[in-house]
Amino acid sequence: MNLTSPAKHLYNIHGAKIEDLISVPLLDKCLQNSITPLRGPVWVSKGEGFSPSGAKMYIHGVLLALHQRLKSAKNYCKQMDFAIDGQRGEITEKGILSMTTEELYLEQEKVNKLIEELQVAIKSYKGHLSKLAPQLQAEQEQCASYVYQHIKRLPANMVLPQGLQLKVYENGKDTGEILVYITKKEMENNCRNQPSVMMERLLHMIHEKLQYSADFKPTGLNLIPARLFDEKGQEIKNPLLLKNEQKIWVSYGKDYRSPLNRVLSLTFDRVTAAEKDGITVIYKTLLDPNVDLLPGCDNWEACTEFPDNFQCTNHQTLQNLEKVDMDSHFIQYKADPQIVFHVSVAMDKMRKALPRRMDYPDLKVPSTLWPLANMWLITKAGMILSRAMVQSCLAIGHPIRVETDDGTSLEGYKLTVQKRDKSSIYQHWGFGNDGSIYCKAYPEFVLTYLEELNVREEVTQMEHHIHHGAWSTAHQEIESSSAEEVTVPSQRQVRDSLFKNTF
Questions:
Q1: Would you state the pLDDT for residue 368?
Q2: What is the reported pTM?
């Protein structure tokens, strides 16, 4: 079995430890394929706990084989029925045509018995699968650490003179944590306190732990971990500096990849409208998860302002909801004008798999309609269009002033989404040789992401004409602790110290 260490435990199909081989049951008669009766199945362990996913795979394979045999047996039995009834023209099995009547009845009895055995076996294995359901659920929630749950978890502040408990992740991921236990004696054995030798030993030990996990798949030319990184992306070269409960990222030779890959993405919020003192006010509202909406640009209309064919609702029921600017970007569902979404941009975590509707039962349904919300198209003219809604594009918004905690003040323009307008210079972008992105209306400003800086934003609506109207002088202070996308002056010494150029 190519075990790298001695076997320690045997488990039956339900995960119970086997103390005596005599207690291992015989395989069902219909599964016996040897003169010597076979027992099983059993699962061997080198010390780790029982993994129900292995038993699940085995049961699925057995059920598939049993169903195929049952189908063949029933077809064969039907052929014999034709022969007994004298319907020889319906018979396709040549062997049946040469049987006598007595042989047919004996063969039919034999096949009926096999069919009964197969049906009993199928029912039995389905029962085994049902009994495994709680364990399968627990393993899915706990990932690879499930088989090590018999090992007592050590407190984070506990001093471990003899070993370490490490939280291991795959390079570029922040999920699928695997606990790895390293003993100091094992790591320092014959290393003569040489960090490089100890590092090689540590990598090999981690490899031995990870090879039992189906979640870890080597990526690169190496099959054994070649490098380790800490949370800050610094490469770990001295195992003696590792701390208990420390998070580390395993690489098979590649450089560190941050698990927090953020991308610019469209966000969709359902909105409604109400009349207040003759003025239309827009509010964010909840989306009914049971409403079936069709994706695609053909089913939605991009609007330069809030749709005028929307039927307003009662203001009193909405006054506690968040308001939305009337000049924002909206899209309206063509099949139902009462369904309107407010479209904006935000920095989102990159999705490596398309979301499923069942995963987001409330406000996240739009993410299943527009899975390409974080992908963009750049036209020859320099417009940046959304792959999810090609009618929508990036544009320069209103002027703002940002002040950081240390008092540094910068002025810029908010990044917005607008309906595509080829004649608007505020929707055309240029790309510098240094990787910067700037609006052609203001080439001295570059597209900048403020990351997670705590900033105090002062919105300045100056005398400044843009394609949808003129801004008058006014000041509105907003406390902001979230990330913002703005364009700021392109003085490199300011940008490099406070902001990160990104798209």
A1: 57
A2: 0.47
